[in-house]
Design brief:
This protein has 500 residues and is mostly beta strands. 5% of the residues lie in helices and 42% in strands. The chain is elongated.
């Protein structure tokens, strides 16, 4: 077999130490070779997004399912409550309403007390919920004088008319410093000592692309970021889509590429821009799931939902699309709506999305396949191979680790093959008693780094390429040895499966 032939030729080489002849394949070409071995069907399953069938009808709470969900442009925003697993829907159908919907079924659990809500072009428009479960609803202010108002309920239980029946307090009531605020709105903070703050923007061109960041503690502290460098001047790049990445980074979208923007003090900086694939993909929400930075968006024309991987911010990977709606949808001429990640557990999360006039959808998102690197078999002369980290797409720091290398071996090697041999091929007939080949070495044998303290590291930076998804490489360590006649030892095997 090829591994035996390569080992024998390596040991008999006359090349000075290290005695193995130089290999032609590099770490980069190694991964390229693996990608070339893939067949098309193997890269299709990047993520799954089936409907949450318990929600509404097969994942869709259609217009008319509840009285406050219609087709008259009166429902533009909702939010997910991480404390209760419910949704908070803002509706102007039949008056001023803030409804609480069951996150699993979509059932209407009642309304919050809205006493005292007044003012603004629209008295209520968008919603956000902080990590502590406090609820915030913003109006729409269409002049720089505003006022832009954000109302607060400390919790669902206190605000529900069937519960505490407590009216809201006012968390912010001042000019946001931008000509129009409240078409887009996001809230973050409320845990780990992070203050609760909002981001808001709107459809205006008076100060070109702009947004406001303010605190939600009643102090009315706010910073307006006007004419943000790197954005357009003919519309607002943050007007219909806003989400926090962290406490000083947002992503926004209007009619142009999405803008990943950091803000510090009075300065906002566009760090990356990317195309979203459709002009109508604006409403969005960001989350880290399974260690991957993910952005979900909805197309407000078709209600199609899409999830991007933002590991490379200016070149996102589109993972999956889905649509739980059916039939002819009412038009959404305003392009409004919202997207919210729900409960997250490992690589699985619930996702909610609404395009105004087209109802609310719910999905179960799962990353697939998962990266893994199980080891198998037993090495000879104590030689071992393992990994530092998982072979995840985009993991630049991934390493193979060859350990317990005999002191006579100044370097170690890694034998790569496309197919693992789980029970091994006995190398005793080839003067390597007690050693086994755990792959066929149909890729290459490549030197790893120098041996330090009995350990040799093989860096294998994994590119952020979906072409590697589902690919697998079997690897095995090789070193010089005094315990076999041939003078070589092999380790156990490791089978790397590239995924998320």
């Amino acid at each position: 077999m090829r591994l035996v032939h390569r080992l024998v030729s390596a040991r008999s080489s006359t090349t000075p130490v290290p005695p193995i002849a130089p290999m032609t394949m590099t770490r980069t070409s190694l991964l390229a070779a693996v990608a070339a071995l893939l067949v098309a069907p193997s890269i299709l399953a990047q993520a799954t997004l089936p409907p949450l069938t318990t929600f509404g009808t097969n994942g869709w709470l259609a217009p008319g399912s509840i009285p406050q969900l219609g087709t008259a442009n009166n429902e533009r925003g909702f939010a997910y409550n991480p404390v209760t697993n419910n949704l908070v829907l803002v509706s102007r159908t039949g008056g001023t309403n803030v409804r609480v919907l069951d996150g699993n079924s979509g059932a209407d659990l009642g309304g919050l007390n809205v006493t005292g809500i007044t003012g603004g072009t629209l008295a209520v428009n968008m919603a956000g919920v902080a990590d502590d479960g406090s609820i915030y609803v913003a109006n729409l202010a269409t002049t720089v004088a505003g006022p832009f108002k954000v109302y607060k309920w400390d919790s669902e239980a206190l605000g529900l008319t069937t519960g505490g029946n407590t009216p809201p307090s006012v968390a912010f009531n001042a000019s946001a410093g931008v000509t129009r605020a409240g078409d887009s709105f996001a809230v973050q903070g409320g845990s780990g000592g992070n203050p609760i703050q909002f981001a808001a923007a709107g459809s205006n061109t008076v100060s070109a692309s702009n947004f406001a960041i303010g605190t939600l503690d009643g102090s009315n502290a706010v910073t307006a970021y006007l004419s943000v460098p790197g954005t357009v001047t003919t519309s607002n790049d943050y007007r219909l889509g806003l989400t926090f990445v962290d406490n000083n980074t947002i992503i926004g979208r209007g009619d142009n590429p999405a803008r990943i923007t950091t803000f510090t003090g009075p300065t906002a900086t566009v760090d990356a821009s990317f195309a979203t694939g459709s002009a109508a993909r604006r409403a969005m929400d960001y989350a880290v799931i399974g260690g991957r930075p993910l952005l979900a968006m909805i197309d407000t024309n078709s209600s199609q939902v899409v999830v991007f991987d933002l590991t490379v911010p200016n070149a996102p990977l589109q993972l999956v699309t889905a649509n739980a709606t059916s039939g002819t949808l009412a038009a959404n001429g305003n392009g409004t709506g919202n997207v919210q990640w729900g409960a997250i557990s490992g690589t699985v999360a619930t996702l909610y999305a609404m395009s105004s006039n087209q109802g609310i959808q719910a999905f179960t998102f799962s990353l697939a396949p998962l990266a893994s690197a199980p080891t198998y078999g037993t090495g000879c002369d104590g030689l071992l191979i393992g990994t530092n980290g998982n072979p995840s797409i985009g993991n630049a720091g991934f390493q193979l680790v060859v350990s317990n290398v005999p002191v006579i071996s100044p370097v170690a090697f890694v034998a790569f093959g496309t197919t693992a041999i789980p029970f091994g091929f006995d190398l005793t007939p080839f003067d390597m008693a007690g050693c086994f080949a755990y792959n066929a070495l149909d890729i290459d044998l490549i030197p790893s780094g120098p041996v330090v303290g009995g350990t040799s590291l093989f860096p294998l930076s994994i590119p952020n390429s979906l072409g590697l998804l589902n690919a697998s490489i079997a690897a095995q360590g090789v070193s010089l040895s005094l315990t076999t006649v041939l003078g070589l030892a092999t380790s156990n095997g490791v089978n790397m499966v590239f995924g998320f």
